[in-house]
Write a structure and sequence with these properties.
With 157 residues, the protein is an alpha+beta fold. Helix content is 48%, strand content 24%. The protein folds into two domains: 67 residues; 77 residues, PH-domain like (Roll). It has a four-stranded antiparallel beta sheet with strand order 1-2-3-4, with helices on one face. A four-stranded mixed beta sheet has the order 7-6-5-8.
Length: 157
């Protein structure tokens, strides 16, 4: 199967949120911010409110601006990526650049509401927005399930 993916800042932002808030550090940040706001409610300490607001609202704002900046500056996001997926692996191309990765070399695959994330390492992934998959979504899912160990696949039902 073949298809093209054109990245958008909203899809990239969704991926960045997932990466940041599904980690221990991300969850700790949320907990710390909530504790600071609870401290303000408990004893009226305005500094705790300010610190809690900064801890809770600065990271999402930072991710939002990061996604916009990456969309503008990263050449890989300027043109669509072309994917060719078969039982051997995944070929990704853009212009003259071509990369082929065997299924065994992939780290994991996670299906989210907006995308299918194919991780090539613990922190790097190809983001396949569902809107760009069209009629290939079910075929892609079955190809992934057939060619990857179940332990490396999440939410692919």
């Amino acid at each position: 199967m073949e298809f093209e993916v054109k990245m958008t800042s909203n899809i990239l932002l969704s991926y960045l949120f997932r990466q940041n808030y599904r980690s221990f550090a991300g969850l700790l940040t949320i907990g710390l911010g909530i504790m600071m706001i609870a401290l303000f409610i408990y004893n009226g300490n305005a500094i705790a409110l300010l610190a809690g607001a900064i801890v809770l609202f600065y990271p999402p704002w930072s991710l939002f601006t990061k996604s916009k900046k990456q969309m503008l500056l990263n050449p890989a996001f300027k043109n669509p990526l072309k994917y060719r997926i078969d039982d051997q692996g995944i070929q990704v191309s853009q212009g003259d650049d071509v990369v082929f990765v065997l299924w065994e070399q992939l780290f994991r695959v996670i299906a989210t509401k907006k995308s299918i994330l194919i991780y090539t390492s613990p922190v790097n992934a190809w983001i396949l927005p569902r809107k760009d998959l069209g009629g290939n979504a079910e075929l892609l899912k079955s190809t992934i399930i057939t060619n990857m160990p179940a332990a490396k696949i999440k939410n692919m039902k």
